[in-house]
Amino acid sequence: MCNVAGDEGRVPLLHGTTPSVHNCVKIDLTQTDAIIKTAISVHDKYPKEYGKAALAVGMLMVAAVCNDLVLSLIHEKVPQQPPLPDVVFQYTPYTPWALVLSEYLMLGSFAVMSVLTLMHRHRWIILRRIAFIGALLYFGRCITMFVTQVPVADPNYYCAPRLTGDDLNLRNIILRALRTVTGIGLKINGKHVLCGDYIYSGHTVVLVTSCLFIREYSPRRWKPLHFLSLMVSAAGVILLLISRGHYSIDVIISYWISTRVFWTYHTLAAYPNLKASKFHQVTSG
């Protein structure tokens, strides 16, 4: 018995219930014996597409390197003046050690997301989505960092000396960026000594997107994990702010962009007819 009503144009997300039009039992009562035919689950029809996953991961790696190249370049341009006024800074105590704790929470959230991805039936599709969304966010961050530099938020944060004279050349800028890449941009690795990567917050990108992927691709009954993931992400952002690791505006912009990119991508993935409708509107307008 098949129920064909409902979201006919919707392709279900990977964790959700499949439309009954794709997974149903058909009973032919015209025969002497009832013949029961079960349609193949739509889950089995998703191609793994290793090439697309590899391409997305490659995009993410390029975006990460571009971030550090831009950071190495703008390190020379960061205004050497006191931090900008910030309402969170005004009403919270300065807690420098909180940045390290924020990074550990960020790594923990990312690790949980990675384990869930590896355990998922459609791990290659989820990996592709993580990498593609991450690449979009970090390419966008390259642009915002390059166009606007603000003073260092933490007046006690160590910034490496600027290049001067003959040392200020493309080779040294690239080498300095590659050293930062090996530390994946974290203070806990002791290699993030370049300043200027504020708008928008890369820490918040990882915290928010990890939480979104954990909640989207884990079973709905795992509510304790969903709640814990949300609390870890919120705590990571709060610790980031009270450590003066980022301005409040960095976090707000990062949250807004991360959630919109995630939701837009998954809306288009779930309702492919929206893409066709939009194309028709553009071409027929």
From TrEMBL:
Membrane topology type: Multi-pass membrane protein
Keyword Transmembrane helix annotated: yes
UniProt-listed InterPro entries: Sphingomyelin_synth-like, Sphingomyelin_synth-like_dom
GO biological process, one term: sphingomyelin biosynthetic process
UniProt domain Sphingomyelin synthase-like: residue ranges: 195-267
This protein's record includes keyword ATP-binding: no
Localisation: Membrane
GO molecular function: ceramide cholinephosphotransferase activity; sphingomyelin synthase activity
UniProt keyword terms in alphabetical order: Lipid metabolism, Membrane, Sphingolipid metabolism, Transferase, Transmembrane, Transmembrane helix
Membrane-spanning residues: 53-74, 94-118, 130-148, 198-215, 227-247, 253-271
Gene Ontology cellular-component terms listed: endoplasmic reticulum membrane; Golgi membrane; plasma membrane
Domain of life: Eukaryota
Chief place of localization: membrane
PANTHER family reported for this sequence: PHOSPHATIDYLCHOLINE:CERAMIDE CHOLINEPHOSPHOTRANSFERASE 1, SPHINGOMYELIN SYNTHETASE
Similarity-based family: Belongs to the sphingomyelin synthase family.
Full protein name: PAP2_C domain-containing protein
